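Margin note from the TA: students keep mixing up input and output lines. Inputs are the sequences; the output is the structure of the whole complex. Example:
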Amino acid sequence: MMPKPMLEIKNVTMKFGNLVANQDVSFTVNKGEIVSLIGPNGAGKTTLFNCITGFYKPYSGKIIFDGEDITGKTPYYVAKLGLTRTFQIVKPLKDMTVKENILTGAFLRNPVRAQAEKVAQEILEIVHLTDKSDILAGSLTIADKKRLEIGRALATDPKMLMLDEAMAGLNQTEIKEAMDLCLKLRDEGITLLIVEHIMEAIMPISDRVVVLNAGKKIADDVPEKVTNNEEVIKAYLGERYHAKSKKS
Amino acid sequence: MFAQVIASGLLLGFVYSLVAIGLTLVWGVMDIINFAHGEFLMIAMYSAFWMYSLVNLDPLVSLPIVAVLVFGVGVLTYKLIIKRVIDAPGLTALLATFGLSLFIRNLAQFLWSPNYRFIGDCFVSDKKVMLGPVVVGLPQLVAAIGSIIMTLLVFYFIQRTKTGRAIQAAALDRNTAKLMGIDTEKVYALTFGLSGACVGVAGALMASFFPVSPDAGVLYSLLAFVIVALGGFGNISGALYGGLIIGLAEALGGYYIGTEFKYAIVFLIYLLVIQVRPKGLFGW
Amino acid sequence: MKKSKISPLIIILLVILVLPFIKADINFQHMLIIFLIFAGLGEAWNLITGFAGQTSFGHAAFFGIGAYTSTILFYKFSISPWVGMLVGIAVSTLVAAFVSYPCFKLKGHYFAIATMAIAEITKQLFISWDYVEGATGIMIPIVDESLASMQFHTSKIPYFIIAYCLFVISILIANYIEKNRMGFYLKAIRESNEAAESIGINTTVYKLYAMMVSAALSAAFGTLYAQYILYIDPFMLFSLDISMKIVLLTVLGGLGNIYGPIIGAAILIPLSEYTRIFFGGTGKGIDLIIFGALIVVVACFEPRGILGAFKKKRKVERGAYDAKANA
């Protein structure tokens, strides 16, 4: 069966004044895939996330989600279509409880409170926050805030979920949990695009890895090939290290 | 006639700027909206008035005394009230300053009655000056010059002195400033005092040509809010230019459209500018 | 848990209802009517500021538009204030939508100052609008007392009942909003505009809804206020003092909670009305000196609002739970 594209990024360029954050980036995420977006700091990953989800309007290029052109559409519209993201710097609704946070997300597909409550309960289970449901989101630990961020996004019942460094700052066990969660979500039919720095965590679960460096795409392949890609190693470890490792 | 209107607008604008600079200092450094700012101005006007009518001091002579006095009022306000609400959430600080403004305004009414009072015969009274093709009142001219001098002093203080830089640092990031060894407590008290000194000077200058009454500060604080927002919160040059724009708008609008609409025009200009520059002309 | 939140509200409402009959004193009844009007205005304001987090310093505009619309219709065309109230609600809602929409892209203080500017412009326009008697204001013609004319000269009880009904309606609306999707969406917008957008909330439209409902309720109270006082002028209705009184009592009671305005009004209104009755006669503003000083004292010693003081206690308990959970 031919893979069906869920998200198509076509020649996206994003500039801030003279600073080019994304240059002519193109790639596709197919339905049911887990794709990781990696790259050194400042490679333009979060900027690309913001362009896709409507927080920025790309300078040029096209973004197509599930067959619909969403270039320059507003964030809420993109979310309504079924593309939801989390934020690298978590944005909990601080003065609301954990459950209220998730409930707010659940209202998108369930306008009636009782239905939304039901969905929220399920999500709380999935992200392991049931026993903290009445705590104010602002007073959670960072790990729990990251869980909450994913939970709130999940509550909108997305077709595709985009996670921006959802694992940064977590310990080994928590990372393992997060990996399992990603696989579980994929099995439930949710497509995932993940920005992450922790290679051990994403390489095993990714179907494909897209690498950005200095705003440009430098690789797009299965994990094994990407890890052996010369340009990627250069980008990550720097020219000198690369040269040294070649000599030895 | 056009030049005449422009001139009077500009002269008024410099005074507005000074009042607004006082407001924006506190706003920028402490993120506090001082609703009692207009009342500080009113205190300054009354101080000048009483020194004139009781001991026959010309407002120009009493000006430094008034400035120091209102500086003290500012410091006292910080120590007694603001200090307690500066970390409070949301709009609590506003509650406190609004309560203070009610208190001061009505205390003034209680003590000195709601009557308008005038400084009838001081050095600048009723004199006119020819500036090229335009005739301006000496009181207005002196007020504008005085305001410019005070504005320059504030600029110099903030940008060139060590204490001024400490104020800037505290405005940028309070916690970091604290870590760098800046006594934020002192900086805040000083900022409030300086804010008071600004309206102290403005009030003493205005007392020679505006009626003095308990409500005298209300309109000017309203205008100062708009000027500060127009320039960008906490931005001193913003407040300076904002004051001039509002002064000109008031004069031009009053002359060409009708005096009764001049303040409506002033507020409308804010609403229009903010559509193009949502963070004020000099906001970032 | 949800049930237990409804019942204290019903108790409060019942207590308020019997109060004017228990103490049939004119001053007390007057105070109650003013209390209901301002608590209701607080509920309305709370929707846009407490829930949605958009600080409005200009609610006097909507209050004043409500008062002026019904008064003009009654004064010029002898149309019943009830019809006037409905028209006033419509006008106020439209004005709110029209003027606040372009302001929603403004953040924080810039929005607050914009609302203040809107109220000031409205005031200046009414001052110079001859058709509505400009700065002189309008004495509402006294007619025979009847429900239709919304005028009662022999007893304050009918005014109380009308104020009570409007108040209950605003509580019901606020309560409904708080418990359902709109309330959650508004709070999400308050907490983080970006997070709200990311989960599919059209933040501009929801802010607009909140503003329109808020303006509609404020206008209804405006009509009642005009019919009760029987005199209106632009200085009184569109003043910053009215806008700020609404802000003060809600902040004092507790923002973003339907009990906040009730608690705040229950403290501030008796305070201001009774100081006015006791000291106001001197014409020297002693009432407002005391009022102002008390606000300062309350702000200094209970900076989180009355409800916040209770919440603080609860948070400590929650914090203990949190610590346990993390241990």
